[in-house]
Amino acid sequence: MWVDIAGDPGAAAAFYPALFGWRVERGVCHLGERAVAGIRPGRHRGWVPSLPVDDVADARQRVLRAGGRLGADGLVTDPFGAVFGLAGPDEEAYEPGAPVWVEHRGREPEQARTFYQEAFGYLCQHAGPAGYVTFQAPGGLAIGGLGRAARGRAEWVTYFSVADTDDATETVLALGGRVKTAPEDSDFGRVATVADNQGVAFVLVSTARSGSGLLTQTDKPIVTICG
């Protein structure tokens, strides 16, 4: 999974290495020897995931036919305002400090489901005891979740693995960030929504205290609901 943060590169480089243990070289964030994220300048501040596709050029055409828009920077905006990129398949990394999940949140989840099915052929499934809806590629790869937001434009939200969510939220505060929702146990791990020193929101997730796992749950769909 690859994600980029758009905004002030200097502010991002001061915040995320201290939180996740990253090493930043020429705008690329490394966790150990593995590149896990990018930092890019941008007026719209936020985490931007790159959805994995086999053929980027073909995927761009399918996005346009489904109603999406392509920007000059190569990023895609879906019909609901959520921005994402396209990239070739990548290895998954689940260790603390790695991006492990993305979730589309908007006011029109049914319409969003239709768009991503038409553009990418995704299947939608219930996963976990709470009936969480996930996107999956036809080959079975879990792509991300589908959620609902009460207001504002749609967005893709990025989840990062941490060893301990409670400790990580304290680090966020010490680095000049904010805690938007306090740590709590969920079906998928102990989660907290936070914002960095630029106000960019993201989610911390750990299974250390709750004993459950986001990726374990979403790998085992219970009921197919679409696709």
Draw up the topology in text.
Layout lengths: L1 E6 L1 H12 L2 E3 L2 E4 L2 E8 L4 E7 L3 H11 L2 E2 L5 E2 L5 E5 L11 E8 L2 H12 L2 E5 L4 E5 L5 E7 L6 E7 L3 H10 L3 E9 L2 E7 L5 E6 L7 H5 L2 E6 L1
Parallel strand pairs: 1-4, 5-8, 9-12, 13-16
Antiparallel strand pairs: 1-5, 2-3, 3-4, 6-7, 7-8, 9-13, 10-11, 10-17, 11-12, 14-15, 15-16
Helix pairs in contact: 2-3
Protein name: VOC domain-containing protein
Organism: Labedaea rhizosphaerae
Pfam family, one: Glyoxalase
Strand order of the largest sheet: 14-15-16-13-9-12-11-10-17
- Share in helix: 10-25%
Q: What is the succession of H and E elements?
A: EHEEEEHEEEEHEEEEHEEEHE
Main β-sheet: number of strands, strand sense, barrel status? Answer: 9 strands, mixed
**Gross geometry:** globular
CATH-defined superfamily: 2,3-Dihydroxybiphenyl 1,2-Dioxygenase, domain 1
**Low confidence ranges:** 210-227
Mean pLDDT: 86
Structural class: alpha+beta
Number of helices: 5
Rounded to an integer, what's the Rg over CA atoms?
A: 17 Å
- Total strand count, please? 17
Q: What percent strand?
A: 35-45%
Text of the CATH class: Alpha Beta
Q: Tell me what the CATH architecture is.
A: Roll
Instruction: Work out the count of structural domains.
Output: 1
CATH topology-level fold name: 2,3-Dihydroxybiphenyl 1,2-Dioxygenase, domain 1
